Amino acid sequence: MHRTSLIAILLAALLLPAPALAAKWVSLGNAKDQTRIEVDPGSLHTPSDGRLRIWHRESYSKPKIPDSGAFSFTRLTLLSEFQCDKRLAATLQQSYAAADGSELKSESFDSREAKPVIPDSSLESVFSYACKQRAKPVVVPPPPPPVQEPVAESKEAAKKSKSGKKGQEEPATPPPPPHWSYSGNTGADKWGSLGKEFATCSLGQRQSPIDIRRTVHADLPPIQFAYKPIPLAIVDNGHSIRVDTPGAGSIKVEGESYELQQFHFHKPSEEKINGKSYDMVVHLVHQSKDGKLAVVAVLMEGGKEQSLLRTLWTHLPLEQNKPVNRPEVKIDPAQLLPAKRNYFTFMGSLTTPPCTEDVLWLVLKTPIPVSKEQLAGFATIYRNNARPVQAVNNRVIKESRQ
């Protein structure tokens, strides 16, 4: 080897950031879409402002394409900053990697604009880990861990890595969020006391659902729906039947766009109108680019068969938390919308723990029909998965004019 080549190699090694040489990834398991979630425990630290930062990464079974469409990637490595008490997160740095581990693009964000941590998201797993593993404060954040994947360990090396030397064991996977349900000792009236991460369920002042009464009639702009068909991805998550909707389109309300993330069902309807409850309701959950949440609620009542529900019920999962993906089956969320789309609107919260507030609610006034058989089919799985109505607390509720 030439002397100049040897010097270049040595310089390159010396210039690698220290954490890059010692990064140790710990798996937090797989997300609902089989995304592998990992964290680097050694990068967890608390700056002087008390917020937590940690490097984590997501590895995908299928290549993804960013909004720019310029390339495809199979791994995303991020430095995130968390506000544990407010369940907020901000991305400070991120890098994209190809299947061979080579870096495709790296970017930093000067803004610390925080967004709510969405329940059941891959980010929530990292949030739960970071907020339960507080590190000693340091002033300077560590450089990012390496993008390139190390050579696979042998089984014997993997065993040694897990056991390690005394004082160097890998942190244990954090416990899952508290178990909750709709009745008994973990029922809706107990949510706020099950864990500090659920405190908003009892302390919040703008909780959902509500009984919609004493509305203010207003010239509300129409909700602009722009949904499109997508492959079916459905799961029984232990609390409801949820359909995940990446790429299913968006809504626009008063100039703000919100992408549809998922929709799920409650029986009976969680919302009431002047004291009246409906047979079921579907909640279509949306998120804007800056993290704001908007939920469209479509009430359901007994009548003729609903075409989209027929497809969904045909492919119901046989077991909880085991998603069913049918790329050949296309569904269109627009089939859940009534022809007339006047609505009530108010600020509220998620209706399941952690009961995050500052959610824009859009409750369509016109229900859609579903058959008695479809209602009975859902009831065989969830007879009652509705949170009781919460105090309005002088909130303004606007209503579209007739």
Structure description:
The protein has 402 residues and is an alpha+beta fold. The chain contains seven helices and 23 strands. The strands form three sheets. Strands 9, 10, 11, 12, 13, 14, 17, 18, 19, 20, 21, 22 and 23 form a 13-stranded mixed β-sheet that branches. Strands 1, 2, 3, 4, 5, 6 and 7 form a seven-stranded antiparallel β-sheet that branches. Strands 8-15-16 form a three-stranded mixed β-sheet, with no helix packed on it. Strand 15 and strand 16 form a beta hairpin. About 8% of the residues have low confidence.
Number of domains: 2
Q: How much helical structure, as a percent, in the residues? A: 10-25%
Quote the CATH topology of the largest domain.
Carbonic Anhydrase II
- Give the C-level CATH assignment of the largest domain: Alpha Beta
Number of strands: 23
The CATH architecture of the largest domain is Roll
- General shape: globular
Order of helices and strands: HHEEEEEEEHHHEEEEEEEEEEEHEEEEHE
Report, as a whole number of angstroms, the end-to-end distance: 83 Å
Oligomeric form: single chain
User: What's the total helix number?
Assistant: 7
Whole-number mean pLDDT: 85
